[in-house]
């Protein structure tokens, strides 16, 4: 039997005295004791509060069996698990790429590098840099592997892989082009163990012909270097080894000039008015020119003549 609290024992003693006095008929008996007796001394201190009953303790254990520190530790572990599940097995590096499509028999197909949860966009342009619109929706042979969307009468469509290891192709018909353009699609190699890889966030495909919206200009077709890898590297902003970037005084915005031997490679959105040997353009209007070394470059910007002076030494 649990030990009675002091206050409870006092109350029981008083009540017992009352009952005994009433039963024996002794007059003058009260909770204070017999008349004339010495009164009991008061009990000092504060009576402690009663603890939880076993039933309450069991209910508390069922409602919250863990301590606050244990709950916080489990929350940290759960967060770490969710981060590990959400993190891709292979990290991706998105790039904007451009290349010229060969329509000749036996040529290799252009490849669109994809990744799960990353949409990639493909654009088409002709040899003059003008957009080349699609004639029909892209033909998707497997909708379970790829989701393909396009805007009618535009030169753009997008591809979203539905699995991490998908491969296939898509067929595109362009307005006025008698042959289809077939593009290989891949979202990763299951046999590869690399930790990161590049994907095509945007792939600009150049068709080596003049399209229905060909830009009228004085550039002879022979000077358009459609298959020149060196000019393509400069146009993509990744100059080849041996190229030295020159400081330039003046000129339009976003002007970049490199030198290799006796040749200058000029990258800009403005039109170059000087004589050049070869040129190449991208879908966003950026152009690349190759010309002999010269101390002065002349551009046409909004009808104005703007000059730039590269520091050759």
Automatic annotation (TrEMBL):
It comes from the Bacteria. Residues 1-21 form the signal peptide. Residues 24-35 have a biased composition (Polar residues). Pfam families: T4BSS_DotH_IcmK (PF12293). Residues 24-52 are annotated as: Disordered. Keywords: Signal. This is Conjugal transfer protein. It comes from Salmonella enterica subsp. enterica serovar Bredeney.
């Amino acid at each position: 039997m649990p030990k009675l609290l002091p206050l409870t024992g006092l109350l029981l003693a008083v009540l017992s005295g009352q009952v005994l006095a009433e039963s024996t008929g002794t007059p003058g008996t009260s909770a204070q004791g017999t008349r004339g007796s010495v009164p009991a001394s008061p009990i000092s201190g504060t009576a402690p509060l009663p603890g939880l009953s076993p039933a309450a303790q069991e209910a508390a254990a069922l409602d919250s069996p863990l301590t606050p520190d244990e709950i916080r530790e489990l929350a940290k572990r759960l967060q770490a698990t969710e981060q590990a599940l959400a993190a891709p097995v292979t990290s991706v590096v998105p790039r904007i790429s451009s290349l010229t499509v060969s329509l000749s028999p036996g040529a290799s197909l252009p490849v669109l590098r994809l990744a799960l949860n990353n949409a990639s966009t493909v654009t088409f342009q002709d040899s003059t840099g003008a957009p080349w619109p699609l004639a029909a929706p892209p033909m998707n042979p497997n909708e379970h592997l790829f989701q393909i969307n396009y805007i009618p009468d535009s030169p753009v469509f997008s591809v979203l892989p539905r699995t991490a290891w998908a491969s296939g192709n898509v067929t595109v018909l362009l307005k006025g082009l008698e042959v289809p353009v077939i593009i290989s699609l891949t979202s990763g190699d299951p046999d590869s163990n690399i930790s990161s890889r590049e994907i095509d966030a945007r792939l600009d495909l150049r068709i080596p012909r003049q399209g229905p919206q060909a830009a009228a200009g004085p550039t002879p077709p022979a000077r358009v270097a459609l298959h020149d890898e060196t000019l393509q590297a400069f146009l993509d902003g990744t100059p080849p080894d041996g190229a030295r970037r020159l400081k330039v005084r003046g000129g339009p915005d976003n002007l970049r000039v490199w030198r290799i031997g006796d040749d200058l490679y000029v990258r800009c959105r403005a039109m170059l008015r000087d004589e050049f040997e070869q040129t190449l353009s991208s879908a966003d209007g950026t152009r690349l020119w190759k010309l002999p070394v010269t101390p002065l470059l002349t551009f046409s910007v909004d009808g104005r003549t703007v000059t730039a002076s590269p520091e050759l030494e």
